[in-house]
Design brief:
heterodimer; A: 12 strands; B: mainly alpha
Amino acid sequence: MGIEVVVEGLTKSFGGQSVWRDVTLTLPAGEVSVMLGPSGTGKTVFLKSLIGLLKPERGRVLINGVDMVNSPEREIYETRKLFGLMFQDGALFGSMSLFDNIAFPLREHTRKKESEIRRVVMERIEVVGLLGAEGKLPGEISGGMRKRAGLARALVLDPQIILCDEPDSGLDPVRTAYLSQLLIDLNAQIDATMLIVTHNLDIAATVPDNMGMLFRRELVTFGPREVLLTSEEPVVAQFLDGRREGPIGMSEEKDAATLAAEADAGAVPAPPRRIVPQLEPSPGLPPRAAVTRRRQRVMGMIDSLPPAARSAIRETYASHAAAPTLTVPSAGSGT
Amino acid sequence: MIVGALRQTGRLFALAAEVGRAVFRRPFQFREFVEQFWFVASVTILPAALVSIPFGAVIALQVGSLTQQLGAQSFTGGASVLAVVQQASPLIVALLIAGAAGSAICADLGSRTIREELDAMEVMGVSPVQRLVVPRVLATMAVAVLLNGLVSVVGTLGGYFFNVILQGGTPGAYLSSFSALAQPADLYVSELKALVFGFIAGIVAAHRGLNPRGGPKGVGDAVNQSVVITFLLLFFVNMVMTAVYLQIVPPKGG
């Protein structure tokens, strides 16, 4: 089972300009979370802070008791082995073939024999659908393939926490859909904690258990997906509907005058949002252990959620016969 | 401005210390070291040999003409050899290691940094300093020491050729004044200089390569800075080492 990631009061700025302030959230163990946000709100910075590549000024990121911000470098390096990070453009080593790229973590961190490495790597290559391309250099393949190779490399050490930086950017809708399914399948197979940073609405609607959104230098909200999907917060609503009317402007924020003018013009209200069911693992795979855990967790906190989210959650669980009911004696907690 | 310069200096020293520690951390990247050694050697050997012949010749001609006027022509050999072994050879090595090897290392690390390859490496729990910088610094040090031997020999032979063949010096006087004035300590300090120069060139190249500013243009600037900074440091360090050497090692002729 994956590892819980606890973020407390994280604040990061570059040269006096703060990126976000006081971000506090918990990525529940083994669940899939999505962090939304318009371009330029520091989503990638957030991801890099989680893994200790960037050092926020204040706050903590706790993983297994190790603080990725302030702990000694040695402990941070050890803890990083629990992570798999998929970079926006793959960040493959340009001088190595895809096979060597994907084998790199194994060769560095394990004493496996070359035949064993070959077996593991080819398995991962098959999972991401790159069979036949393993001998190519990163410069010789398309952006989408590089992304998938980056994912394969992130997976090769069986990580407990998987971070994906915009897995959809540069992919066509079909490939994005496949990738969404792949991420859910992975979660079902290895039960890792996952955080996906994206501004793709399809991924946001179908993949995560939990969702958060960064805007205006802070975390707008983070919680079960229904909370964000039913939110009437203007920023969230604008973003989810992809409208121009709202607080998000071309250069991040609109000024008050523009907003007032918009309000006077009486913009057409957006049609009510519908919550699409979450993706299921592909047939033949085990059910996601996170589903049961999440259900218990969410039902435990349901009274503290906004009414709209509450009814949406009840509706989801009522209509969703396949999801294990609460009466199942804690099937997920033993893993 | 001054604070910025001091901060960069501090980071350079911090990297040097980190490299010093990481050298002893297992596993040693032997393969990377051999590859880098081969690369650095292959880009420096030929230019070094080609530069050292005219350099030895210039010193031989200049010193020869001077000693001729002073009537001390029989000491030409000793003087030109000392100049070649102690000064010219480590500096030629420094120029080539910084200009040919350092710039290539800086460009390589810099382009990897902006492509996030080094971030990816850190994320996988592999320290880029241990994995990439240490083998490169050790390779530049080793090549510098060996290259220094090569340049000393080629430079001395060049000086001999020009002095004896072109200026009509006597071979016997050249060699005897050589062994009268030169001592093993001259060679040792020359090799020590080369070792230090190789270290500085490797560290500066790695430091600039790991911290390029911005995109591809930043890498170009970093390479430029790395070569210039290395030159400045090397000439300064050479001055200090020469001064210290002359103070603590008694000259043989005296």
